[in-house]
Amino acid sequence: MKANVKRGTGRTTYADVRVQVPRDAKCTDELPRTTKQDDRYDIFEQYTIAIWRFHRAVDNLFNWETAEELCKAARDKKEIIPVRIYLGSGFKPDVVEYMR
Prior knowledge:
This protein is of the alpha+beta class. The protein has one domain (about 5-90). Helix content is about 35%, strand content about 20%. Strands 1, 2, 3 and 4 form a four-stranded antiparallel β-sheet that branches. β1 (about 5) and β2 (about 15-20) form a beta hairpin. It is globular.
């Protein structure tokens, strides 16, 4: 199966895919208060950005807090959620299905 790669503004290329958010992705509220970098938050942030990009393309009023809530809900319920991946960003999610 191949991704349906699309070209955005400029040289930005992206693919819309369905993913499952891993259990170890944690938001700042779920992590201990510390100044150390935590990979669990980095994973959460990557998935939240991808969710935000996907929904923002459809609805310009879609906000970051809603994307965080969707990410938490998808992780907790083990749901498959659509996201937008910018190619070349280095983010490699657990792809379940490629969208058209």
